[in-house]
């Protein structure tokens, strides 16, 4: 047998890609303590904490508006399956954490979807899970976004959209409210 045939099977590692954005990141440099250059290994039984206090958090954000411990990520294996995932927990008493439009209060936790956006204050974090098989550790790879991850939130249109999905060609006049029309009158 050749050494290739005798070599151990290479194990793929679960990697959590986190892309950070803050509108003041160029001036305030709140991400200066984060390592965006390489993947970082984290033991499976460790909790990855993000926050202001570098003695408590593995990932420090240099911003006085961030809680000492803002949130944590815990790697886990689902019961009766071989699937791995992450649980995110809000550890801030003052700031709510939003995960893909689900608001988490203090000590609330939720499973992290394969791809989602995490928001608190002016921070936006795109989280993407790259699945793997390793059980002893996972990796975190940090990225920095140059532009906002979330587009400007548009206010809902003031024009009603009929059930057929076609918008009316006439604009609503300012100050006039829409009039209900029976579908048989069309």
Could you describe the 3D structure shown?
The protein is mostly beta strands and 186 residues long. It has a domain at 29-148: Tumour Suppressor Smad4 (Sandwich). Helices cover 4% and strands 34% of the residues. The chain has 2 helices and 12 strands. The chain has helices spanning 3-6, 25-28, and strands at 15-21, 40-43, 47-51, 59-60, 71-77, 84-90, 97-99, 102-104, 109-111, 115-120, 123-130, 137-144. The strands form 2 sheets. It has a 7-stranded mixed beta sheet, with no helix packed on it. It comes from Vidua chalybeata. Residues 166-177 have a biased composition (Polar residues). Residues 165-186 are annotated as: Disordered. Pfam families: FHA. Its main location: cytoplasm.
The CATH topology of the domain at 29-148 is given as Tumour Suppressor Smad4
Which structural class matches the secondary elements?
mainly beta
- What is the makeup of the main sheet? 7 strands, mixed
Q: Can you count the helices?
A: 2
- Measured as a percent range, the helix fraction is under 10%
The main sheet orders its strands as: 2-12-1-11-10-7-8
- Rg (CA only): 23 Å
Task: Specify the overall morphology.
Answer: globular
Beta fraction of the residues?
25-35%
Number of strands: 12
Q: Label the CATH architecture of the domain at 29-148.
A: Sandwich
Give the topology string: H per helix, E per strand.
Answer: HEHEEEEEEEEEEE
Question: End-to-end span in angstroms?
Answer: 79 Å
Overall mean pLDDT stands at: 84
Question: Unreliable segments (pLDDT under 50, ≥5 consecutive)?
Answer: 152-160, 167-176
Can you tell me the CATH class of the domain at 29-148?
Mainly Beta
Organism: Vidua chalybeata (Village indigobird)
Region (Disordered): 165-186
Protein name: TRAF-interacting protein with FHA domain-containing protein A
Keywords: Cytoplasm, Immunity, Innate immunity
